[in-house]
Design goal:
47% of the residues lie in helices and 19% in strands. The longest helix is centred in the first third of the chain and has 19 residues, at 45-63. Helix 2 (45-63) packs across helix 3 and helix 8 (159-175) packs across helix 9 (192-199). The radius of gyration is 18 Å and the shape is globular. By secondary structure, it is α/β, with parallel strands linked by helices. A 6-stranded parallel beta sheet has the order 4-3-1-2-9-10, with helices on both faces. Strands 6-5-7-8 form a 4-stranded parallel beta sheet, sandwiched between helices. It binds D-glutamic acid (DGL). Residues 8-9, 12, 38-41, 72-74, 116, 119, 147, 185-187 line the site of D-glutamic acid. D-glutamic acid is lined by residues 8-9, 12, 38-41, 72-74, 116, 119, 147, 185-187.
Length: 264
């Protein structure tokens, strides 16, 4: 048994996992990237539900996690209610765009949401906006190209290459007059500091990391004590090309993870 399993389509959820360990280094965690189904953001709702139910079932059977953190906005906005219904004995924590946080920092009342196609098209955002940012203009941008760059190249790319990759999104939101920009796809958090650097002071970058980790740890604290496996978190994937293995070696050493290999 482990305390937490983190699930994303690839490397997006890793910054959430490392932040949780910063807050509680005793938590035992595994990380799963469902790379066989990457990118989730280009799938239909039905496809997303099918893939997430299948990988969640495998995760529960393999690791018996007390809590699963769906560290992926696309999976969360499409499947959280179904997951809770199908797996009632597992606790789920979702990741949704930090619209409330963006509204709290925006002076111009114009906020940008950068996410996958499946997330920006999901009505859940409209609910969040109406609830927490009713007086704000919400500007949407899906960016499959940047997500793919982050997943497949960013960890071994130069800083110049990373800057070039994030510039179109930053310029887009600046041109639209936004002063807050939500990282509504977890992949972007891998380049969070760089995106903020490129955006400068007039465009504040916000994400959901703080809220998600706080929620995950408060659920853990509410559960009775249990014996769990200890040690460095292992990173598993469901598909891997030869080229990507060297990318994962960099990721594991950067984030202090152990390579778990392919999930059986
Ligand atoms: N990291 C995922 C998210 O937060 C999406 C990446 C993908 O398209 O698979 O939405």
């Amino acid at each position: 048994m482990v305390d937490f399993a983190f699930l994303d389509s690839g490397t997006g959820g890793i910054p959430y996992l490392t932040y949780l360990l910063e807050k509680n280094s005793d938590a035992s965690c595994v990380y799963i990237g469902d790379t066989a189904n990457f990118p989730y953001g280009e799938k239909t709702h039905e496809e997303i539900v099918k893939c997430v139910l299948s990988i969640t079932d495998r995760i529960i059977k393999s690791f018996n996690p007390r809590i699963i953190v769906i560290a992926c906005n696309t999976m969360s906005v499409n499947t959280l209610d179904v997951l809770r219904e199908v797996f009632p004995d597992t606790q789920f924590v979702g990741t949704v765009p930090a619209i409330k946080l963006a509204a709290s920092v925006s002076k111009k009342r114009r906020i940008g949401l950068m996410a996958t196609k499946a997330t920006v098209e999901n009505p859940y955002n409209i609910d969040l906006k109406n609830h927490f940012a009713a007086d704000c203009e919400l500007i949407l941008r899906s960016d499959a190209e940047l997500i793919s760059f982050i997943e497949r190249e960013s960890f071994t790319a130069t800083k110049e290459e990373c800057v070039k990759a994030v510039l179109p999104a930053v310029n887009f939101f600046k041109e639209k007059g936004c002063d807050a920009m939500i990282l509504g796809c977890t992949h972007f958090l891998n380049l969070r500091d760089l995106i903020q650097e490129v955006a400068g002071d007039e465009l504040k970058v916000v994400d959901s990391k703080e809220g998600v980790v706080k929620r995950a740890l408060s659920i853990l604290n509410s559960l009775p004590d249990h014996k769990v496996e200890k040690g460095k978190p292992k990173l598993f994937v469901t598909w891997l090309s030869e080229k990507e293995k060297s990318e994962y070696d960099v990721i594991c050493s950067r984030y202090n993870l152990e390579w778990g290999g392919m999930l059986n």
